[in-house]
Write a structure and sequence with these properties.
It contains seven helices and seven strands; from the N terminus they run H-E-H-E-H-E-H-E-H-E-H-E-E-H. It is α/β, with parallel strands linked by helices. Helix 2 packs parallel to helix 3 and helix 2 packs parallel to helix 7. The structure holds 5-O-phosphono-beta-D-ribofuranosylamine (GRF). 5-O-phosphono-beta-D-ribofuranosylamine binds next to helix 2, strand 5 and helix 7.
């Protein structure tokens, strides 16, 4: 009786400790899948609160369904590169309802404005495919290849009002091999993104990094 009680209490404690992750994405969702896999195999003590996308038929929403995670398409509104005010309010509401502790931008192709960021101060993380501050912006692996650097990589950072700026939480270097194409380089960077994103979330879940 006493043992069962103790077990119940410790389960309740570990449940409350779980980091609740919100995910925003527009594309394939391979980073989301790496996070979901790590949760499922028990290496990441967290749960996915919700996956939101601005693209109705995106891979990330399909993968969320496969992993049994709550997911939702929210119409981004009338702009091409940002959310309009109504959409921004809907994204905020949905993240709030899911009680997320941290939000991961896993290939979300819109700029988040101050309104969203103020709702979740220092709690929005981005995965970027270069060693910032080098090569911010789109297709960063292509920029690195075209520039001719010998080493690039990926970065996980806290999102601020700038484009791919904000405090860096972790980076992983990837060497550019002779004969690398844009595709081969991107594939190797993405493998490291998956590892790095999970690593940073594990450290957040274990309170080894404090944000917010
Ligand atoms: C990643 O390469 C990330 O660096 C960038 O968007 C891409 C998303 O890929 N921000 P996926 O949708 O996670 O496969």
């Amino acid at each position: 009786m006493f043992d069962n009680g103790a077990l119940l209490v410790s389960r309740a404690v570990s449940e409350t400790k779980k980091l609740v992750i919100g995910v925003l994405g527009s594309g394939r969702g391979s980073n989301f899948a790496a996070i979901a896999d790590a949760i499922e195999n028990g290496s990441l003590n967290a749960q996915v609160g919700i996956v939101l996308s601005d693209v109705e038929d995106s891979g990330i929403l399909q993968r969320a369904a496969t992993h049994g995670c709550r997911h939702q398409f929210i119409d981004p509104g009338k702009f091409r590169t940002k959310l309009d005010d109504e959409a921004e309010a809907a994204y905020i509401r949905s993240m709030r309802e899911a009680k997320v502790d941290v939000i991961v931008l896993a290939g979300f192709m819109r700029i988040l404005k101050g309104g969203f960021l103020r709702e979740f101060p220092n709690r929005v993380l981005n995965i970027h495919p270069s060693l910032l501050p080098s090569f911010p912006g789109l297709a960063a692996w292509k920029q690195a290849l075209e520039y001719g650097v010998k080493v690039t990589g990926c970065t996980v950072h806290i999102v601020d009002q700038g484009i791919d700026t904000g405090p860096i939480l972790g980076q992983q270097a990837v060497a550019i091999a002779p004969g690398d194409t844009s595709e081969s380089l991107h594939t190797r960077i993405q493998e490291q993104e998956h590892r790095l994103a999970v690593e940073i979330l594990k450290r957040l879940a274990a309170d080894e990094i404090q944000i917010g």
